[in-house]
């Protein structure tokens, strides 16, 4: 799966938090199988650039996915998909 510009997938002026929209977008890719278990997500700064958001916003999206058990953050290895949504 390629990680191209995804800033158009985010509604910066809508009622839903931007971090939640990013988490939803990534979760959809996991649920569809586009990001299977073991896939590595881009790092925080790169993810922020891909979605056109602040680093803290991208980090909050990853935190939400980690709390759900969808991804695991492994120091030195990155963020890995652990299960299908």
From TrEMBL:
Matches recorded under Pfam families: GntR
Domain of life assignment: Bacteria
Gene Ontology MF terms in the entry: DNA binding; DNA-binding transcription factor activity
Start and end residues of each HTH gntR-type domain: 16-84
SMART domains: HTH_GNTR
GO BP annotation list: negative regulation of DNA-templated transcription
InterPro entries associated with the record: Bact_HTH_transcr_reg (IPR050679), Tscrpt_reg_HTH_GntR (IPR000524), WH-like_DNA-bd_sf (IPR036388), WH_DNA-bd_sf (IPR036390)
Protein's recorded name: HTH gntR-type domain-containing protein
Organism of origin: Amycolatopsis bartoniae
Entry keyword Transcription regulation: yes
Keywords, comma-separated and alphabetical: DNA-binding, Transcription, Transcription regulation
Gene3D superfamilies per the UniProt record, alphabetical: Winged helix-like DNA-binding domain superfamily/Winged helix DNA-binding domain (1.10.10.10)
PANTHER family to which the protein is assigned, alphabetical: MANNOSYL-D-GLYCERATE TRANSPORT/METABOLISM SYSTEM REPRESSOR MNGR-RELATED, MANNOSYL-D-GLYCERATE TRANSPORT_METABOLISM SYSTEM REPRESSOR MNGR-RELATED
């Amino acid at each position: 799966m390629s990680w191209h510009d995804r800033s158009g997938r985010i509604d910066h002026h809508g009622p839903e938090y931007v971090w939640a929209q990013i988490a939803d977008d990534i979760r959809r890719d996991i649920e569809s199988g586009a990001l299977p278990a073991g896939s590595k997500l881009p790092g925080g700064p790169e993810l922020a650039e891909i979605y056109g958001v602040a680093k803290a916003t991208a980090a909050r999206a990853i935190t939400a996915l980690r709390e759900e058990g969808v991804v695991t953050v492994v120091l030195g290895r990155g963020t890995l998909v652990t299960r299908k949504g």
